Amino acid sequence: MKWDEQQCKDWLRSMAMGDEEAYREFFFHTYGPLYHFAFSIIKSHEAAEEIVSDVLLKVWMQKERLLQIEQLKLYLFVAVKNTALNYQAHTRRNLLERLEDCSPDMPSNVPGPEELLLTAELQRRIQQAVQQLPPRCRVIYQFIREYGLTHKEVAELLGLSQKTVEAQMGIALKKIAAVLTLQIDTGNKRTIKRKFSEE
Fold this sequence. Notes:
Blueprint: H1 5-16, H2 20-42, H3 45-61, H4 63-66, H5 72-87, H6 95-101, H7 120-131, H8 135-145, H9 151-158, H10 162-198
């Protein structure tokens, strides 16, 4: 499910008035992305569940104060990151190193009208191209394209400069385009070769 920032803020306003149903909707809408992010840091399903549940419980407890937060999505990701890092304070590896070493099982967004125009084959090739990216490029690409964070938000979340994020995103897009172009060219050559063989 794609993260809907405006919907989350609407739920938060209802929660501030004591609406428990709004909190339930908010919880299930945000739990998945936050859980996958927590798991990519600590590599423990139980710990990730506990961390995200704790963060979302605090959201309910501090719902009135959180109405002042403009970047709610970034706030929640940072809260999960900090809680996860505190959970594993004994480790020396930083957040980016952990993310680079894993292939985060980030949930795919529900396809929108534009995405439906893409063939299943092209979607598969894009996913393959993403998995072939260098670790840092892949992490940044997924946060921007799959979680919808801005370059500035990713920079803050990962402790990088915004220029570094922009440069890495540029590298990611170029590599994906190169892989897709190569696959398309190869596919065309095979089609042409097959056609001449039939003749």
